[in-house]
Amino acid sequence: MATQHDIALTNALTGIPGPLPPSGVIHVAFPHANRFTIVGNHLAQHDGLSLTAIGIGVYIQSLPAGSQVGIKALAARFAEGETTIAAALRELETHGYLHRTRARLTNGRVVTRTVFCNQPDALLRERAMAPTRVAVPPMRTVEPAAPVSVAQAPVSAAAQAPMPVAAPVPVAAAPMSVAAAPMMTPAVPEPAPVPEEKPPPVRVPSRIAPKPPRRPLPQPRELTPELHRTASALLADLRRHAPELVLSEDDVEELTPGAAAWLERGAHPDAIRRALTTELPQPPKYPAKIVRHRLAVLLPPPLPGAQELAPARRTPVTPFQTCEGCDRAFRSPDPGHCRDCRARYWEAA
Question: Where is this region: Disordered (predicted)?
């Protein structure tokens, strides 16, 4: 069967007019006679929809009216979960392809009414080009009088009765004859349609949050030869304690400054080893990336010096004393009299 398909495909490629592209997709297209759906490129190549949303939109467009397109029905039909399908339906709803409303039936049951529009832009254009209807108050019109000649027969009494006259109409500058002066009604210009402003396209944020930038590998203040040798030996010895952490020579050379920064901050080699080998993912696909991440994220702070660990000096507080003259409390290092009593004694002296 595979050989027959290959032969048929080769024959179809030879029938394509023009030179074939050197790379990329090559279309072998046959016209559909039945069971096909017309899908616009605005949906199939939408740059704001995810691949799941585009696929679900094409699937819903191919279904007949009345088909079930809820989250449960789509999850039972496809391998994607309900969370993924719900997010895709929200994307289609944001871009105008899908409209979901709650409606109450005559029996009191509340159902979800789903409407799928294959061209949201065309719907917005039709709404914008629809003329806005403006209510114009009706105007009274008077039929123009018949032309009257000079030699006309006498008019009857009924015809001489007063007739209702319309609002005054501005008279033209040129004189008009009696026969050519019918009463005219000013024409009301038809209001121009007001185009509806098209809302700006809404970009649906990606369901995958952007990853934060990777922390740089810590660097020691001074990488001495002795510190370099100890750090490289520590990294090369990791596979003895965790067989999964097999690092190459290039990895050890690249990660040595990070381990040297730990040693420079007073971390014990056993503590570094436990931090790098405890609770590893199984199986670890990229051991060097795991070690680099832990060296950068779990870096301990520098050890505090003697000045930081020294107890803070307390500010001496002046004690309270009781005045020997008025028994008032006042602050003073030595007992005696308060300020007012001292002033009185000085005045008396």
Answer: 190-224
Q: Which two tokens stand for residue 306?
A: 């003697």
Single pTM value for the model: 0.36
Beta strands 329-331; 110-116: pairing state: unpaired
Amino acid letter, 192: A
How sure is the predictor about 175, in pLDDT bands with cuts at 50, 70 and 90? very low
Q: Which of 101, 124, 147 is the last residue of a domain?
A: 124
Contact 261, 218 (CB under 8 A): yes
Task: State the Cα angle at 327 between 321 and 328, rounded to 5°.
Answer: 65
Cα separation, 325 vs 69, whole angstroms: 96
Higher pLDDT among residues 57 and 6, named by residue? 57
